[in-house]
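Lab notebook: predicted structure, single chain.

Context: the supervisor wants predicted structures on file for every construct in the current expression panel, including those that have not yet been purified. This is the next one on the list. No modifications to the sequence; it matches the entry in the shared construct table.
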Amino acid sequence: MTGPPAPAGAPPQYRLDGPADAPLVVLGPSLGTSMDLWLPQLPALHRGWRTLRYDLPGHGGAPPPAGPFTVEDLADGLVRLLDDLGADRAAYAGVSLGGAVGTALALRAPERVASLVLCCTSPRFGEPGPWHERAALVRREGVGPVADTAAGRWFTPGFTGAEPYVAMLRATSPEGYAGCCEALARFDATGRLGEITAPTLVIAGAQDGPTPPAGHADRLAGGIPGARLTVVDGAAHLAGAERPGPVTEAITAHLDATWKGAGR
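Prediction complete. Output recorded below exactly as produced.
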């Protein structure tokens, strides 16, 4: 891992791409992946937007965490990064844990979130116990055991392109992965979804096992005022990787309608 451990709420490791004068879209990755999770969407996004991708603690070469952190800490780190970059407002799109960060950001700093896309995520990721068990497993044995089963969690059985994404998980710091598990264990925005004011698109993979449409995506779409739900068939948890065409089309259509930025 690069650099010293990062404290909770520190601005994340990031990359800016796309037209410098275009409206900004922040892209959040999932547990066990890096900012490269969003590569399939970048060509279409860069036709109209500038993208800001970031890595979670201990992921993608980012420093591991210096101690425990919450999803809300990750959202606060993004606010600090937007401040550093002089960006008053941005759209936000996130997958799984990255989607939870977007939910927290929209609740903690609503004036900064111009538009929101929540992909294969949830207002609550189940009971805390299994997350703490997974954190203990990776601290004890490394990320190998969870990487060995990742393809089955992330993709439908017929998908043949899993290996680059599994490789992201194998390169993840055990402490970074464990810390993110513990953050997910604590996250519960269910009772506050009605406070979100950003225009919101919820995207779900029809075959998503970790966050299926029923009980997860539908709760987001039903709880956030005015939110729309798109369910993508033939996709599981990393729908944007498995079915990039329909996912990218849904995201760009939503952004076209909600976030064209000043002067566009």
